[in-house]
What does this fold into?
Amino acid sequence: MTKYTKWVACWGNSTSITDRKECTYAKDLTLRYPIRMCFSGSKLRFRFSNLTGTESVTLTKVSVARIGMGEWTPLRVLFKGKDSVSIAAGTEVQSDNLEMDITAGETIAISIYLGEFTQMNAGTLITGPLSKGKYSYGDFVDREDLPLNLSRNTNWFFFLNTIDILTEDRNHALICYGDSITAQSWPDYLSLRCWDEGFRNVSIVRRAVSGTRVLRQYDCITYQAYGLKGETRFPIEMNVAGAEAVIIQHGINDIIHPVGVENNPFRPWSDMPDCQALIDGFKKFYLPRAKALGLKVHSGTLLPIEGWRTYSPMREELRNEFNEWLRNAPEFDGCVDFDLALRDGRHPSAFAPGFDSGDHLHPSESAYKAMADCVPADLLA
It folds into this structure.
């Protein structure tokens, strides 16, 4: 009989400030997030986050059920024995342990019902083949089929932050930390690659927020969804049970954002770092914290940006200089050279043909697959 003795994060997301639109509250709403389970285990626990909220939120009830197993049997997720939990602004909560026999490869659905007016200020936009949610107007946490006329798809993941499973001791987590590049598809493709190639003892935990920078953050509602700066984010997001390593692919927004207050009042030239400032940010905010947690740290090089709307030779020189440090710095345990995998061999400041999404900053879907494929096998093993 398999022994399950170790808690390991099998899925994870960042919690950031959501895009500040006209409507920032929801009521009588069901959120549903399907999660593919990479490990077998006997218990689950769930972390919910209101880290970036400015007022308390209440999850009226939460359920979890298997999808596509022929029988829909939702189990209630409890918090100190109660259905409902209030999460104070700036805090996170963890559920009670839920006994549930899980088989690797199956998919579970986490459903969250928000009964009263709820500030929707803690969530993150993520995409990829394994990152698809739904929301419905009404209470449907225990219902298998959401009503078509009351439901829509969403890639905003609100409040749900981490899922841990009590699993085998051999299993562990690999953290992917970054910005919009990592908030998009490559971590999902890496999860699929691990499964297909037999790396069945590693989970891929995404900690990524679009627009984030290493050294700065925005305090205006126009760009608030670009998230917290690295100094604030990193210690919180490394809270990952069973993690053994982290890939850090971060810094391109520090390079491309500043344009001068004459062009954008929120993006002064004073925000523009030199290479040493970015290096110092990694050395101060990332490397010591990761090493203190016993994590192996792998750098991820920054991708080509030629053609992006703020591209300039000065920014390209900075990207290349920083990439050389990421490739060679002895402080890292290795480098995942995403730049080398995606750039045009004849014109390295641009994406290779077929690898540009069209905006000259974000990769295409085939390029995201290539990013997943270039992660060294020994890091997954």
